[in-house]
TrEMBL record:
Annotated DEAD-box RNA helicase Q domain residues: 118-146
Family annotation (SMART domains): DEXDc (SM00487), HELICc (SM00490)
Span of the annotated motif Q motif: 118-146
Protein name: RNA helicase
Classification via SUPFAM superfamilies: P-loop containing nucleoside triphosphate hydrolases (SSF52540)
Region (Disordered): 1-57
UniProt KW keywords: ATP-binding, Cytoplasm, Helicase, Hydrolase, Nucleotide-binding, RNA-binding
EC number: 3.6.4.13
């Protein structure tokens, strides 16, 4: 596929192939970081197509257990015996029959490898669910999955905090899928998330994990046709994933019935308890049975969550795997620049770094669009995304970026939380964020599942207070960017 962007804006810049113009003859980035000079660089321009994504794309080869004896009535007894023996051995060898994805052999940090040694089979999950888990490429549970899956299966409420990219999604989706009774035509689980893109992503994870189950997953968010959702809800739905406003709307209309919904999972729970969402979330809970189970997950839990927890959770099991706040695999640097030099600095980064895919964060919609235009003019392939775009454009950008159609994505905080694109190895804060939660989530878009990543922060004089505050709150130190960056620290 050509690296030239295929669509006109919105969302899509029309960049040239790889790292072309603008990379050479650059001026030194002034300010404190005088050593960060392209002229002395030993780096080549390493803009190359991103590695194939690790998303799975399987053919189903296995028949659900209930279908194994289909057609038996027409065979004689001997054939029956032979068949049942074959079936038996097939069942015993069910693992050998799995359609597993290629092994991800990249280096992984302790954030995901420091487990207790549990296996998914230890949790007595339905075989069809286990098959989906293994076929998704999960070999064994990550630390947060080890802590939460068995507890969630007991029906207990959970408040869980774990680092970005360590597998929180499956930590609530696996028990949700296990608990759903597929014979019962009712919404039994609702998963709430704060953004539409995250809703699409999470619904996809549920479908992949549950691909051998007969569970109907529906995704519903604002920005799409309400009528289509109403029609869809006339068909069976077991698991509903969506943003709070739309689900509340459908529930109030009496189309979405939640009186048999016994599980509510709140992903990015602290964000869902911000002023923007909390009233809708609370109203939704009132439509659910009194004994519903609530699972709350996030990498960040400010104290504001306490009030909600006291009012709605029943003796929750608290999990906190965040003794250390930042990801072990993500190296964080800053480059001290003046505002007008930021684009030059970015250009230098593009020419020096080995970017597989990058997300570049700006603090406003306007700046996202302006920067995407600049990047395109510099000759790099670039898409952009923000919440003011039409949903259809947002979806296209998200889908195409995920599939590696473009190397760089400029975004507002729309993509700060939960978005999981394994081939993103570099995050650039073109604008430095104002608070530590945002910083943590943005940086966590790289280094997914213990992989290595790089975060570069372009910092101006005005940002100095935010930098100190965030460093103190996260107990971390941003290092000044060196003239050369060893690619082993973010590409291994
Ligand atoms: N047990 C596992 N084995 C291998 N890969 C896994 C496992 N669990 C999750 N993953 C993969 O790890 C990646 C990150 O998972 P996920 O998005 O759930 O992280 P997260 O903790 O929700 O991160 P964030 O806080 O950024 O939302 C995904 O690509 C997922 O497929
Ligand atoms: Mg997540």
């Amino acid at each position: 596929m050509s690296w030239r962007a295929r669509y006109p804006p919105p969302g899509v810049g029309g960049g040239r192939v790889g790292g072309g113009g603008g990379g050479s003859g650059m001026h030194q980035v002034a300010g404190a970081n005088s050593s960060f000079q392209p002229r002395n660089s030993t780096f080549q321009n390493h803009q190359r197509p991103p590695a194939p994504s690790f998303q799975n794309n399987f053919q189903q080869q296995w028949l659900p257990r209930g279908q194994l004896s289909a057609g038996e009535s027409s065979v004689d007894e001997v054939e029956k015996t032979v068949q049942s023996e074959a079936t038996e051995s097939k069942l015993q060898g069910w693992k050998a029959e799995l359609n597993l994805p290629p092994k991800d052999t990249r280096y992984r940090t302790e954030d995901v490898t420091a487990t207790k040694g549990n296996e998914f089979e230890d949790y007595f999950l339905k075989r069809e669910l286990l098959m989906g888990i293994y076929e998704k490429g999960f070999e064994r549970p990550s630390p947060i999955q080890e802590e939460s899956i068995p507890i969630a299966l007991t029906g207990s409420d959970i408040l869980a905090r774990a680092k970005n990219g360590t597998g929180k999604t499956a930590a609530f989706c696996i028990p949700a899928l296990e608990k759903i009774n597929q014979e019962k035509n009712a919404i039994q689980v609702v998963i709430l998330v704060p953004t539409r893109e995250l809703a699409l992503q999470t619904a996809q994870v549920c479908k992949e994990l549950g691909k051998h189950l007969m569970i109907q997953v529906m995704v519903t968010t604002g920005g799409t046709s309400l009528k289509d959702d109403i029609m869809r809800l006339h068909q069976p739905v077991h698991l509903l994933v969506g943003t709070p406003g739309r689900i509340l709307d459908l529930t109030r209309k009496g189309v979405c019935i939640l009186n048999e919904c016994n599980m509510l999972a709140m992903d990015e729970a602290d964000k869902l308890l911000s002023q923007e969402f909390q009233p809708s979330v609370e109203q939704l809970i009132r439509f659910m049975p009194a004994n519903r189970q609530i699972l709350m997950f996030s990498a960040t839990f400010p104290v504001t969550v306490k009030d909600f927890r006291d009012r709605y959770l029943n003796k929750p099991h608290v999990i906190n795997l965040m003794d250390e706040l930042t990801l072990k695999g993500v190296t964080q640097y800053y480059a001290f620049v003046e505002e007008r030099q930021k684009v030059h600095c970015l250009n230098t980064l593009f020419s020096k770094l080995q970017i597989n895919q990058s997300i570049i964060f700006c603090n406003s919609v306007n700046r996202v669009e302006l920067l995407a235009k600049k990047i395109t003019e510099l000759g790099y392939s670039c898409f952009y995304i923000h919440a003011k775009m039409l949903q259809a454009h947002r979806n296209r950008v998200f889908h195409d970026f995920r599939n590696g159609a473009c190397r760089n994505l400029v975004s507002t905080d729309l993509f700060t939380r939960g978005i999981d694109i394994q081939s993103v190895n570099v995050v650039i804060n073109f604008d430095f964020p104002k608070n530590s939660e945002t910083y943590l989530h943005r940086v966590g878009r790289s280094g997914r599942f213990g992989h290595l990543g790089l975060a570069v922060n372009l910092i101006t004089y005005e940002d100095r207070f935010s930098v100190h505050k965030i460093e103190a709150e996260l107990n971390t130190e941003l290092k000044q960017i060196p003239p050369q960056i060893d690619k082993d620290i973010y590409c291994r």
